[in-house]
C-alpha cells in the first residue's frame, strides 16, 4: 500500500501532492489494478490533514479513471499508467522527432523548443486538473 508524504513548503496544493504520488506509484508499478488505497481516515491520521483534502484527491483520481470508489470497501486502483506499449512509445517518439525537425526548419533553437514544450505541458496539465 502506498504511504503518502507531504512537502509543506513546496507550494503545491496538498491534494495535488497526493494525486501526483499515486500517479507516480502507478507509473512505477508500485500500485497495480486492484490495489486498495489507504482510507481517508488512514491518510488523515498519517499526515494530519483535512479529510476533505484526501477525498478531493481521490475524486480527481477517480475522474481520471485511475481509481474507483467502492462504498463500504474503499478506493481501488482501476488502471495502471505504466502500460504504454512499446509500439506506442516508438510511434510517439517518431512524431516528436518530426515535430522537433519542423521547429528547427521554422527557425527555433533548442531553448525555444524547450520553452514551447514546457508551456504546452503546463497548459495541458492545468486544463486536465481544472
Automatic annotation (TrEMBL):
Query: Which parts form a coiled-coil structure per UniProt?
Result: none
Q: Which InterPro entries match?
A: Tscrpt_reg_HTH_GntR, WH-like_DNA-bd_sf, WH_DNA-bd_sf
Q: Which UniProt keywords apply?
A: DNA-binding, Transcription, Transcription regulation
Checking Pfam families in the record gives: GntR
Q: Does the keyword Transcription apply?
A: yes
Which ranges carry the HTH gntR-type domain?
12-80
**Keyword Transcription belongs to the record:** yes
Any one GO MF annotation of this record: DNA binding
Question: Which domain of life does the UniProt lineage start with?
Answer: Bacteria
- Name under which the protein is recorded: GntR family transcriptional regulator
Taxonomic source organism: Streptosporangium roseum (strain ATCC 12428 / DSM 43021 / JCM 3005 / KCTC 9067 / NCIMB 10171 / NRRL 2505 / NI 9100)
Amino acid at each position: 500500500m502506498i504511504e503518502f508524504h507531504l512537502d509543506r513548503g513546496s507550494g503545491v496544493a496538498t491534494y495535488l501532492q497526493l494525486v501526483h504520488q499515486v500517479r507516480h506509484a502507478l507509473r512505477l508499478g508500485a500500485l497495480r489494478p486492484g490495489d486498495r488505497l489507504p482510507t481517508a481516515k488512514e491518510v488523515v491520521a498519517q499526515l494530519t490533514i483535512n479529510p476533505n483534502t484526501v477525498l478531493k484527491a481521490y475524486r480527481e483520481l477517480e475522474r481520471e479513471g485511475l481509481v474507483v470508489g467502492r462504498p463500504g470497501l474503499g478506493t481501488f486502483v482501476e488502471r495502471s499508467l505504466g502500460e504504454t506499449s512499446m509500439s506506442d512509445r516508438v510511434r510517439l517518439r517518431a512524431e516528436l522527432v518530426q515535430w522537433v525537425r519542423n521547429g528547427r526548419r521554422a527557425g527555433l533553437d533548442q531553448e525555444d523548443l524547450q520553452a514551447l514544450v514546457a508551456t504546452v505541458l503546463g497548459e495541458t496539465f492545468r486544463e486536465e486538473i481544472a
